[in-house]
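Tokens in:
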């Protein structure tokens, strides 16, 4: 457990350093990652993924467009609709530092004995699933207690 906690803290610290150096906040970085994975995403889909209002995503996208990080393209069929794309390459400097910690860990893990890598993956999935299920049960109980009060 101590090793997992250490990993989590170091991963977050690396992410904070990278975002600070690039001048983006956590929500911006999440948006950039999502747009990179879903080129041409509509603002409403991005807002839904990030859990922000349409006004909030509009403000964020506008800021990132002005910085040259994102670009908007009008829909060919409906000019009222915009699609959002990355205007930068997340795999190239300086943007690659957002994923450097994960990339380094991925290379190290891929260098392990295949059975050890598979066992590690099973352990992490099972642990994460069990902890998530427990947290969900606590959330349901808390919600039920709050509504009863």
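Residues out:
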């Amino acid at each position: 457990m101590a090793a997992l906690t250490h990993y989590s803290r170091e991963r977050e610290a690396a992410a904070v350093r990278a975002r600070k150096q690039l001048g983006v906040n956590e929500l911006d970085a999440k948006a950039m990652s999502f747009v990179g994975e879903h080129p041409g995403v509509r603002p409403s889909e991005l807002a839904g993924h990030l859990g922000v209002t349409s006004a909030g995503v509009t403000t964020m996208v506008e800021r990132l467009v002005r910085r040259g990080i994102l670009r908007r393209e009008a829909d060919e069929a409906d000019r009222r609709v915009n699609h959002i794309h990355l205007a930068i390459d997340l795999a190239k400097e300086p943007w690659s530092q957002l994923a450097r910690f994960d990339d380094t860990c991925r290379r190290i893990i891929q260098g392990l004995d295949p059975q050890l890598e598979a066992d590690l993956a099973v352990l992490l999935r099972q642990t994460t699933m069990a902890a998530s299920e427990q947290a969900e049960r606590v959330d349901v109980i808390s919600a039920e207690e709050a509504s009863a009060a």
